[in-house]
What does this fold into?
Amino acid sequence: WLLAAMFVAFMLYVLTDKFLNIANSLGLLGLFNNPSELMQLLLNAVLLSLITYLLDKLFSGELFHDIRSMFALFFRLIFVILEIWAFSKLSGMDLKVFLHAIRYYENLINFLCFLCITAVLVYNTFKHKSNAKSAYVFTKIKAFFTVSMVLVFLLYHFFLRGGTKPDAVSVILYYVAPAMMLIDWIFIETKSDICGQEPLIWTALTVGYFVIVFLLSMFGVAILYPMFAYTFIIYVGLIAAVMLIAGYLFYLIDRFIKRR
It folds into this structure.
């Protein structure tokens, strides 16, 4: 219901404001003074729904029936809510700004993680009736995205941050989200699904992204990372090394947990 309400409100705002040139259509209808009030209401409704669901499970005796599934459900819901808030602030609710933002690796990986976790939540809840494990395809994708999030943290903290204090959006996207993906993979996700060649595939995909970015900058199409201009080989070498080391570390952890 909440998703349906968000979709209807968003379409109303887009159709009237962007195409009919009617500013603040929600305010004209006497509903909200601005879109941020609608977003605040929806976030409050989501939190209230979570609390209501938790209380229902608590008093029905089902809360401790599968505590791991409950933890996974709420943990992933928090991740999704944080990502929605961060991207809404980053883009200012503007689609063009959002599309421009996700051209950058650190934002693209965050958005893909958001889509993946959302799909896992929906699939597990309606298919398996439990969030304690994921479908086989999701375990493969999540392992890649988790390793990529480790790279996102390192890339931002050591190269993109530039010695400045990160704002709330940056903290969520480049510190909190990678940590949550890592916790999800270690304590929630199904193990024993990573194959020995997969870290090589992950590394190739990541390096491929940065090669495309470099080529686009050479032709003046889009200069996303100016620091790559003269030291591209060094940066890509470091990125490849991080992906390989992190990937095979995940692989070893996966094998170790499988044996236990």
User: Anything to note?
Assistant: The mean pLDDT is 80. Residues 228-259 form the longest helix (32 residues). The CA atoms of residues 124 and 134 lie 6 Å apart.
